[in-house]
User: Which sequence fits this backbone?
């Protein structure tokens, strides 16, 4: 491969760099793209539930 | 061509024509009556054409191609004798490089120039290799000039009618052979985009004929080469594999919590609460592994991972089922006594988990293991898939375009 070949591949190189960058970033922050574990966040302003009364259930 | 004027009188209407090519010009068309005639005594034939064509590159226009200035000397419109399509050839001239042609068909352009050295196989074979390019026979044809204007360094009308032509292509390159009983002319050519032609002659590209279909030497997807696509793809795949091995190898998979839970301990409560555990570092993954000693039974629980600092809850569920039996002489099993839940991007902090279990009639206990920083191989496979899209798409499109290109040839290697 010479410089002209690389110029011809500029879009592929850009695309591959973006995909690889996304892959590396995801690993660094522990992000699994397609995660079969469905999660939901709930914010409780510094306090949290200690009992039942959950209004939803999640099933895999 | 500059210098003192050089004139020739038209043998038909006697109009005096200024000849830019001077003594090199051997045939020309009269600027007044448009009659084509030879210069000197080698031909007394006069040819008139029943059609006319306005050159998009004006006679006398100058253009810079590969750093060399060429002047448009003449234009011929040729018609293929079997399939009756026509194309245009502009004869261009540079005092140091000699003459060359700019041919145009359906808005696709080729710069074509005479060459002395041709691969020996080119004379007889239907394909050959030259400088690493594999040339294949694309067409054989006889042609006729249906229109000419300007000046020519040979009797273009007579030569065109008496030669048999063969063209070999290795896009964006071509070899063209014009062969008659007493002459052989080899030319080499290369595809030019309309933008390159317009830029060379400093005319708007909109003045040039619009492109239709695919040019027979039109390169695939710009300047992309097959070998470069393959080589770069292999490099990227190797880099991806190394990166995945690095991340997998460096993943801590640190057990931050492990505990066993029994239904009997639940008493009046509806849930278990783990002890607090600390997650270190930045945002990382968390894997929660549930193991229940089951046999033909199930276990289900809802989990709430609670950040003790912010109160944020991450809620998820996990069910574990395991069945086995013996049927028709064969034993079978289904499911597992172990299940994993993967949590993405869990920030550092102090956490505990509330577990809301649902025990069946025979399952009464389970264990829980929480691991920090677990590598996900699924990202690797998805990335591999995404990176494969370009080369796979390229070769599918390339094959489709090649078939389309060769559909206009009598010598196509493809079946339709």
Assistant:
């Amino acid at each position: 491969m010479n410089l002209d070949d690389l110029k011809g591949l500029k879009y592929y190189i850009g695309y591959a760099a973006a995909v690889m960058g996304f892959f590396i970033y995801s690993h660094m922050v522990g992000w699994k793209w397609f995660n079969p574990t469905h999660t939901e966040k709930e914010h409780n302003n510094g306090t949290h539930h200690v009992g039942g009364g959950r209004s939803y259930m999640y099933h895999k | 061509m500059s210098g003192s004027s050089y004139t020739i009188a038209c043998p038909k209407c006697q109009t005096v024509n200024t000849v830019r090519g001077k003594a090199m010009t051997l045939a020309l068309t009269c600027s007044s009556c448009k009659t084509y005639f030879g210069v000197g005594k080698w031909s007394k034939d006069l040819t008139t054409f029943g059609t006319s064509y306005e050159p998009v590159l004006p006679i006398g226009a100058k253009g810079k191609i590969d750093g060399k200035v060429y002047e448009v000397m003449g234009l011929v419109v040729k018609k293929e004798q079997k399939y009756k399509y026509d194309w245009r050839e502009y004869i261009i001239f540079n005092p140091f490089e000699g003459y060359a042609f700019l041919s145009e068909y359906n808005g696709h352009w080729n710069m074509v120039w005479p060459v002395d050295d041709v691969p020996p196989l080119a004379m007889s074979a239907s394909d050959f290799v030259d400088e690493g390019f594999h040339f294949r026979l694309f067409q054989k044809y006889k042609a006729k000039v249906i229109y000419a204007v300007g000046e020519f360094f040979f009797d273009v009308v007579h030569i065109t009618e008496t030669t048999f032509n063969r063209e070999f292509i290795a896009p964006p390159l071509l070899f063209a052979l014009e062969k008659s009983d007493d002459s052989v002319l080899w030319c080499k050519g290369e595809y030019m985009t309309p933008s390159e032609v317009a830029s060379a002659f400093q005319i708007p590209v909109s003045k040039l004929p619009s492109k239709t279909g695919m040019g027979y030497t039109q390169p695939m997807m710009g300047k992309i080469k097959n070998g470069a696509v393959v080589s770069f793809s292999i490099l990227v795949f190797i880099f991806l594999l190394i990166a995945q091995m690095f991340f997998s190898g460096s993943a801590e998979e640190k057990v931050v919590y492990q505990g066993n839970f029994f239904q009997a301990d639940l008493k009046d409560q509806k849930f278990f609460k783990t002890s607090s555990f600390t997650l270190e570092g930045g945002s990382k993954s968390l894997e929660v592994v549930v193991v229940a000693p089951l046999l033909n039974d199930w276990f289900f629980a809802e989990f709430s991972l609670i950040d003790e600092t912010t109160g944020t809850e991450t809620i998820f569920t996990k069910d574990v089922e395991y069945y086995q039996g013996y049927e028709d002489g064969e034993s079978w099993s289904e499911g597992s006594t172990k299940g994993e839940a993967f949590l993405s991007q869990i920030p550092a902090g102090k956490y505990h988990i509330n577990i809301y279990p649902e025990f069946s009639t025979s399952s009464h206990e389970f264990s829980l293991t929480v691991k920090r920083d677990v590598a996900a191989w699924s990202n690797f496979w998805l990335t591999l898939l995404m990176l494969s899209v370009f080369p796979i798409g390229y070769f599918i499109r390339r094959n489709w375009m090649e078939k389309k290109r060769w559909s206009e040839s009598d010598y196509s290697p493809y079946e339709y």
In short: Residues 14 and 59 of chain A are 40 Å apart (CA to CA). The longest helix of chain A spans residues 10-29. Chain A touches chain B through 49 residues (CB under 8 Å). Residues 1-33 of chain A form one domain.
